[in-house]
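Two entries, shown back to back:
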Amino acid sequence: METIKKYFPNLSEQQIAQFDALYELYTDWNSKINVISRKDIENLYLHHVLHSLAIAKYITFKPGTTIMDMGCGGGFPGIPLAIMFPEVQFHLVDSIGKKVRVAAEIAKSIGLTNVVTSHSRAEEIKEKYSFVVSRAVMQLPELVKICRKNISKEQKNVLPNGIICLKGGDMSGETQAFRNCCEITDVSSYFNEEFFKDKKVVYVQI
């Protein structure tokens, strides 16, 4: 939690309380439904919460922005981003019902009113959003193919609408088809912990 406050020193008291509550909630839910590796739960804030918030370093979403978290699992990156941007609407989608349930219950427990969840395949979602976010769900070409239909033409942010995903390793193969509309940013330019040295924020304008 101190790491979150180090990189985001302007959090409100409510945001600090919401982030602070995540460890106990995820630990409790994880003992019933495995949404985070049992070995990794101790690293919740660094490996999951702060990693999700790399997107908040990449872009400050304007109020009224709509975002779909595709393949949200237990709520990453959607829940940390929803805490960070309370005036932005988030739709968390996953095809695995028990994981969506965890995300929904945690959002409810910490009082997030800007989150809705769906137990659905992304192909079934018809709504339009300013951005689709995801964390290492699938190869980028497949992600773009599925989510292109969900990107709204109405622009609200400085960054044109598109897909923002968190990936790791060498992205040259995955991004080759999008080289004219893609930007790759090293997460290590935001956070100096060793964990982030090969992590990337990948943005594709749609």
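entry 2 starts here
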Amino acid sequence: MKILVCIKQVPQKDATLKLNEAGTWIREDVSYEANEPDAFALEEALRQKEKLSGEVVVLTAGPARAQQVLREALAKGADRAIHLEGDGFVGLDAYNTARAIAAAIQDEKFDLIFTGLQSDDYGYAQTGVILAEILGWPHATIIMHIEKSESGIRVKRELEAGFFQHVDVPLPAVLTIQSGINKLRYATLIGIKQAKNKPMRKVTMAEVEASLSPNLQKIEKLYLPLKSKNTEFLEGAPADIAKKLVEKLKNEMRVL
């Protein structure tokens, strides 16, 4: 079983975020980490490899700093990495990100591609599904369990209101993995040492830009919520004040 896992580097959850001068995204002076749903996707790929044998390849797109998430994945047990390296990859929407990934792996023969359900920064939950459409592969989302079957794989999907759906999916396929599907492992000391010698292929923007098009989505403006307060005194008889207060809570505050 040959599995590709797409991992994104995102700002740390407890990082203090500041907007850039253009107000279109955050400043770069923050700490970064691997996207949490992608970490569960990697763990599931490693478990499938342990059960079925094969190869796990990890991929990310972003500047040089994004290489850190690949090194961490290699230390946990991934076999090799692909880095779409360049600042230009940061500004791509989900559609162009998927097209860039598809172009970078066109010479590979994967059985499965895993992505996290969504990213912790944008939260679009689109890249994996669009990638499947570009490749012409079947896909399934919000995956909670995967089993090999005679015809391909059988997956368990999480639906709303506590319901689940079991689906048979032929291979090759793309799956978006739900957080909590498994328990994450830590990199071992020997894994960290071995990661330094594992291959990492770098792909530049020039190599995939022929497959890209103008972004279909873009962020026009980001802003921090404005904090304000307004004090209003109600005067009159107690009964009149109570009536006015109820009306304000019902019609203006909409809490009743």
